[in-house]
Structure formats: C-alpha cells, structure tokens
Amino acid sequence: MSRAAVAGVHSLSVAGLSLSRGPRRLFSDLAWRLDSGHALILRGANGSGKTTLLRVLAGLTASDSGSVKWDDLQWTPLCAGQRAATLYLGHINALKDELTAAENLTEALSFDGLAVTDSAQRAALDRVGLSGRHDLLARRLSQGQKRRIGLARLSLSEKPLWLLDEPTNALDAEGAALFSDLVDEHLNRGGMACIATHLPLALAGRTRELSMGTTIQ
Q1: In the CATH scheme, what architecture does the domain 11-93+158-211 have?
Q2: Environment class of residue 131 by beta-carbon count within 10 Å: exposed (0-12), middle (13-18) or buried (19+)?
Q3: Model-level pTM greater than 0.85?
C-alpha cells in the first residue's frame, strides 16, 4: 500500500526526565533525541518504567521533572500539539465488545481526527487478516484478532509519532511480521516510533534501544 510521506521533518527529545512512584524511582535524568525516520525500542524488566515513559510522551502522565520537546516546542500534558502528533496504543486493547471490528476501527480513527472512507477501512481490515470478520462483534474475536484491529489503525494513521506498548502481544508470527512491515513503512515515510517490547522485532534498521533500569527491590 503506497502512502504519502508524513508531513514535515520532526524531532522528539527528552532531557532530565525523572519520575518516581512512591519510594521507587522508575527512571532518572533520561536524555535522548529521536528524529524522523527512526525508532526507539524500550527494553527492560516488568516495572522498569517502559509503559510509564510512553504515557509521559503521550501526555497521559506527568513526569516529576525534565522536559519533552517536539522540535523546539516543549510539550505539556495533553497540549494540542502533543495530541495532534501522537498515536498511543496501550498494551490493553481499547475496544468495545458491543461494537463490530469495523465499528471499533471507525471509532478509533474518529478519535484520531482522521476521516477515512469505508472502502479504505475495509481494505485495511483485509490487509491485517480480518477479511470476512468486519461485522463480527469484538467479543467474538480472539485476542490476536482484536490486536489486528490496532494494526489496521496503524496502517491508516497519519500521525508522525507512534507510541506503542507491547504491540505484538497475542499476535502470531504472521501478525508480528505484519506489524514490523507497518513500522518500516511508517519510518520510510518519515514517521518515528517509540516501542516498548520484550520481544525481538524484525525491523529493517534506523532503530536503537534504550534499556530501562529495573525497579525490583
């Protein structure tokens, strides 16, 4: 599927980023920069702060100190620029069981502020292996099939920054390979991604890893 480049050349940078949960320090003085066309893979044990860092970048959690900048503009939690630039997919499927696969995708795209034709949505669902299941209620889908609705959302996204938490959970090998293809396409179009995962990802390049410190005591 050929798609236009993500608008603009951007950078995401954090400096002095620190956050604690009670007596535990999840991360301290994080500093890095991510440019268009590149991905940052977050590694670390459970509880090491991967999800929390993604939520800070998404504006859903406030850090104790430090800054998050998009280009030269500092983001504050849930500011308009942050909402416009980011697509956040958590490790739990944000789906409604009483809606069909197609209806869940439509609702997610509406939340993203993206108007997509019905035919484009159907094609996206077909691409991720949900052909013939468009009209099934989400409660009747397997966990892997539910995860593939998120892949369809990624395939249609025009957001430059993807924040993805354990995106290959419940996916089989074919689904994981499709996810890697979608990320590679996104990077080739000038997008960027921060991905928290315990599993290896078969990405074509332009990636680096950040090892989050453990908080096990």
Answers
A1: 3-Layer(aba) Sandwich (3.40)
A2: exposed
A3: yes
